[in-house]
Amino acid sequence: MIESISKYFAVLMCLVYVILGAGLIWGSRDVFNVPTKYSLPMGAILMGYGFFRGYRIYLKHFRDS
After folding, report:
1. Residue 9 DSSP symbol
2. Closest CA to 21 of 54, 53, 48
3. In this structure, how many other beta carbons lie within 10 angstroms of the beta carbon of residue 14?
């Protein structure tokens, strides 16, 4: 039960990182009030981290099932 909850929470957090990164890249001036020179690298880092976490979650929980 706990493993199932933690698996889907990890997937949710992965999606949150990707969505926040995309939001920083495309809507930084309107939503977050962050200058473009900071929002582009930070958004790319957040999206990359989200994809990396997603890949690790896939390898750990979904590849064998």
Report:
1. H
2. 48
3. 20
| DSSP code per residue over 30-43 | III---HHHHHHHH
The domains of the chain are located at 2-62
Query: How does DSSP classify residue 29?
Result: I
Whether the CB-CB separation of 29 and 36 falls below 8 Å is answered with yes
Query: Model-level pTM greater than 0.90?
Result: no
Q: How far apart are CA 53 and CA 12, in angstroms?
A: 11
> Residue 63: what are its φ and ψ, rounded to 5°?
-70, -40
List pLDDT tens digits, range 2-52.
Answer: 888 999 999 999 999 999 999 999 887 777 788 888 889 999 999 999 999
